[in-house]
Hints:
With 90 residues, the chain is an all-alpha fold. It has a domain at 18-78. The protein has helices at 8-31, 38-67, 69-77, 86-89. α1 (8-31) runs antiparallel to α2 (38-67) and α2 crosses α3. The protein starts with 7 loop residues before the first helix and ends with a helix.
Amino acid sequence: MTRSIHERSDSFGRVFSxxxxxxxxxxxxxxxxxxxxLARGQxxxxxxxGITLALGVALALRTAYGLxxxxxxELAVSKQNLEIGPEQAA
Length: 90
């Protein structure tokens, strides 16, 4: 007998994909209400950049959550090899 367990990662994937698909569609719908010109082009370009940045930050935070924030921070700031040698283990 198998049991289905709802995990929090399932909702992250759903929300992430919804933003990735619906964000640009909503952006184009909003831009279509504007008259043609520089403002319309800038809205589309900067809106796409904003959506891309938001998705990138969401992925980075999800990765940090998966690794544990402390371990991710140590990996980000360390510049030395993470292997522990015999003299460091004692």
